[in-house]
Every structure is written in structure tokens, then in C-alpha cells.
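Postdoc handover notes: sequence design on the structure in folder B. Input C-alpha cells:
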């Protein structure tokens, strides 16, 4: 049996004592755990936190863990372990049907939780490898310290918002960001959320990229969802 590299786990659980126990147990195993108690907070944390693994309680105050899982699956393939207090077979079936990797009934022992997390990671390791962005091969190089962007070796002159939008997309190539997520990340949550503003900025970025390399679409439109940065070049 080979060792599993610890990763970042997003825990969505509204009961603080349970969450604290889970965090303690996972941190003992060198995982980094980010905890939120609402589904909405989990979804808005997705592009920022970029978790490698999700633990989702099914009964949450604002939505179900299933809803959170659906949002995760729109954008990525990271493993999902569900927690449920309900002794219902249907939950287990739904959990697996919508793309969950495993299901744990409350109350559970922390040792079992850790064992399940590690087992899922071993099982899904190859899957995670194929979804990980291959940053070395991308022709887009962003130096966030100096706010400098190069595309195919040429310096790209971007406006402030264009720069922040491109940085957000580049943090996770292939990951679909909604217009709201791009607004929150690139412009701050206080700005007026005009969909078309984002579209205009994307148009501007595309024009500048095409000037350097015509015929290559670096930013992909995901109809109905938003935009993503090309993953395979
Ligand atoms: Ca709950």
C-alpha cells in the first residue's frame, strides 16, 4: 500500500462539534481542512480554495449536500464523501448517483472517516492526476507578484479588471467559472454584478490574446455556465 499525499479538504458541516472533531482527526493526518457550515459558502469558496477533496453533510441549513455536489461536478471531478444522519437507503443511492464517491452514516468513528478519506484518495488518485492543471505546458505565464502576463513569450497589456479576470481563470485551467464567480473574484463582492460587464472584459482579453496568436481560443465559453481557460494546449 503506498502513501497518499495529503491535500486540501473542504468540509461542509453545520454542526460545530462534529466539524471540530473531523478537523482534528484529519489534521492529525496532515490534511489541510477548510470548514464552512453552509452549502452556499462552500460553492462560493470553490474557485478560491480549490479543494482536492470534499466532505459534505447532506442536511445543511440552506440547501442539501446533494446540491453542493452538483455544483462541484459542474466544474470538477474531485472526490466527494457524503455524511448523513438519515438512515435512508435512498440517500445512499442518490449520493452515488450524482457523483459522490462514498457515503458515511452518522454517528461514525473518526478512525473510520479518516480510513474512508484515504481509501477514496487511493482509488481516485489517477483521476485527480488527469484533472490537475499542467501549468508547465501552458503558454500563458502570470507573474502575480509583478502583475505581469506573458502569452507565448510576449508581454500582454491588460486593464486592471482584465488582469484579475485572467488571473482567476488561470488559477484553475479547465475549471468553469460563472460570471458571478468572476465578478466576486476579479472585482470584489461589492461591485455591481452586471453580466455583460464580464462579457465585455472577456471580449477585450480575447482580442489581445488573438493579436498574439490568431486562431487559438485561450478562453472557452461554457454556454449557460460561464468561462474557462483552455486546459490542453
Ligand atoms: Ca446537518
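Designed sequence:
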Amino acid at each position: 500500500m503506498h502513501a497518499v499525499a495529503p491535500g486540501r479538504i473542504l468540509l461542509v458541516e453545520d454542526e460545530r462539534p462534529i466539524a471540530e472533531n473531523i478537523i482534528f482527526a484529519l489534521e492529525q493526518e496532515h490534511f489541510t481542512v477548510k470548514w464552512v457550515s453552509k452549502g452556499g459558502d462552500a460553492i462560493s469558496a470553490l474557485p478560491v480554495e480549490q479543494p482536492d477533496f470534499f466532505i459534505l453533510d447532506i442536511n445543511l441549513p440552506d440547501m442539501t449536500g446533494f446540491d453542493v455536489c452538483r455544483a462541484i461536478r459542474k466544474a470538477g471531478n474531485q472526490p466527494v464523501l457524503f455524511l448523513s444522519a438519515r438512515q435512508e437507503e435512498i440517500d445512499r443511492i442518490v449520493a452515488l448517483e450524482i457523483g459522490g464517491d462514498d457515503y458515511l452514516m452518522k454517528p461514525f468513528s473518526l478512525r473510520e472517516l479518516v480510513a474512508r478519506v484515504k481509501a477514496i484518495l487511493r482509488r481516485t488518485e489517477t483521476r485527480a492526476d488527469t484533472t490537475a492543471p499542467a501549468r508547465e505546458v501552458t503558454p500563458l505565464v502570470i507573474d502575480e507578484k509583478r502583475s505581469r502576463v506573458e502569452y507565448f513569450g510576449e508581454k500582454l497589456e491588460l486593464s486592471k479588471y482584465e488582469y484579475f479576470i485572467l488571473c482567476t481563470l488561470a488559477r484553475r485551467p479547465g475549471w468553469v467559472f460563472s460570471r458571478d464567480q468572476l465578478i466576486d473574484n476579479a472585482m470584489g463582492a461589492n461591485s455591481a454584478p452586471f453580466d455583460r460587464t464580464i462579457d465585455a472584459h472577456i471580449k477585450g482579453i480575447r482580442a489581445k490574446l488573438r493579436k498574439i496568436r490568431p486562431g487559438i481560443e485561450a478562453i472557452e465559453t461554457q454556454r449557460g455556465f460561464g468561462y474557462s481557460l483552455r486546459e490542453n494546449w
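Context for whoever picks this up: Strands lie at 8-12, 32-36, 53-57, 80-84, 102-105, 140-143, 148-151, 154-156, 219-222, 226-229. Don't rerun without checking with the PI first.
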